[in-house]
Amino acid sequence: MAFREYKIGVRLFGIAFGSSMFITLYMPASDIASVQVTETGLHRQLSFGRVGGFSYEDPFLLGGAKPTTVTLTKDPKTGAAIESTTAYVYDSSAPFPNGIRHPRILGKKPEELSLSKGRIGEASESTGAVFVIGDDNGVPYIEDATATRGWTPSAALRTAGDANSAHIGSGKIMFVREGCWWCHTLLPEETQDWQYFGAPPMLGDFNGESPTAFGSDRKAPDLTHVGSRNSSRQWMMLHFFNPRLVQPHSIMPRYDYLWGDKDANGKTIDFSAWRTSYNEYIEGKRSVPPEIPQYAPNSEIRYLIDFVLALK
């Protein structure tokens, strides 16, 4: 009798567990698959790249194999002046995002427009491509500017220049790798959060993004719209090099090591001397803190700041 009751109990537990997983995983997945992507969702996946975490292309989370987001004011092909345009440059090392590989996740209308008007089906990972976000009567879609306008990745990067380029996808890798999501969330709750952190994102803002990095435990401010609240790159530099420079009682750790060994001029950064000078400032032996070294263009901190400032 006991064994028979045990079998019945196990079967009931299996039914209950399977039903809960169906409700928790399958049903939301069905809803998400039918959601139409928003312009924010397209920007996220095109700027982040295929995976915003561990991937075969970047197993050590160094920020490689990611697109470059550029701002263009000239046509990369003709050199003619154009309205300021945000473009997403994928060279041959950067895998295309999920919206290009699997257009059905964009929603019916964006998928149709991306394939017919945007010609994303002609994009080739082996040669790379330049993508922009189009709009058709309020419906956003992806346009393969390499096919529609003749823009090549090398020409787009050269035309934009480093000053108008942002490594947002590489920056998200830094955000995940350094554990920023352990303390910061990317999802304001439906409470007083809205008054300070801004409105929460919409479901369509995450089509094709992997992972979302929502975070689960907030020990620090939500960062969903931080780029709108604070767009100062200089402030971000101070904050990441030593948070106590801008928030005296901050519990955030230093991220000065993300500067690497060399500064923007190629000189070796003397971290020990900087910390000695900083301690003298804390002790009142000097009136101002030491200067923060300017980061090199290919430094990991540049990537992280690019990502944080893009959160708008």
Can you put this structure into words, describing what you see?
With 312 residues, this protein is α+β, with helices and mostly antiparallel strands. The chain folds into 2 domains: 39-166, no CATH class; 174-309, Cytochrome c-like domain (Cytochrome Bc1 Complex, Chain D, domain 2, Orthogonal Bundle), CATH 1.10.760.10. 38% of the residues lie in helices and 11% in strands. It has 12 helices and 5 strands. The protein has a 5-stranded antiparallel beta sheet with strand order 4-3-2-1-5, sandwiched between helices. A hairpin with a 6-residue loop joins strand 1 (68-74) and strand 2 (81-90). The radius of gyration is 23 Å and the shape is globular. The model has no long low-confidence stretch (mean pLDDT 92).
What's the topology here?
Layout: H1 2-33, H2 39-48, E1 68-74, E2 81-90, H3 98-101, H4 108-116, E3 129-136, E4 139-144, H5 145-148, H6 153-160, E5 165-166, H7 168-177, H8 193-197, H9 226-229, H10 233-241, H11 271-282, H12 300-309
Antiparallel strand pairs: 1-2, 1-5, 2-3, 3-4
Helix pairs in contact: 7-12
Strand residue percentage: 5-15%
User: What is the CATH topology classification name of the largest domain?
Assistant: Cytochrome Bc1 Complex, Chain D, domain 2
SSE-based structural type: alpha+beta
Within the largest sheet, what's the order of strands? Answer: 4-3-2-1-5
CATH homologous superfamily of the largest domain - what is it?
Cytochrome c-like domain
Mean pLDDT figure: 92
Total E-strand runs: 5
List the uncertain runs.
none
